[in-house]
Amino acid sequence: MTIGYRKKFREDLLQNNTTKVRNIRSYMLTTLYNAPVKCSNYYKAEVNHDFYGK
Question: How far, in Å, CA of 20 to CA of 31, rounded?
Fold first, then answer.
């Protein structure tokens, strides 16, 4: 996983977040820590939604 994908993933999470983040530092640390695990699943779901409507 390249750093570019993690950066894009982090930006997507921030942009699509609908709840108020009270502790941005904690939110960012958690996002960075979980990015390698969640990133591929996130983009797989996005592709499935765009191509197959699932």
Answer: 15
Cα 47 to Cα 53: distance, rounded to the nearest angstrom: 9
**pTM given for the model:** 0.52
Tokens 């997507």, located at residue = 12
Structural domain total, the chain: 1
Question: Residue 48's domain spans which residues?
Answer: 3-52
In the predicted structure, residue 1 carries a pLDDT above the cut 60: no
What's the Rg (C-alpha) of the chain?
Answer: 12
Distance CA 27, CA 46 (A): 22
What pLDDT is attached to residue 23? 92
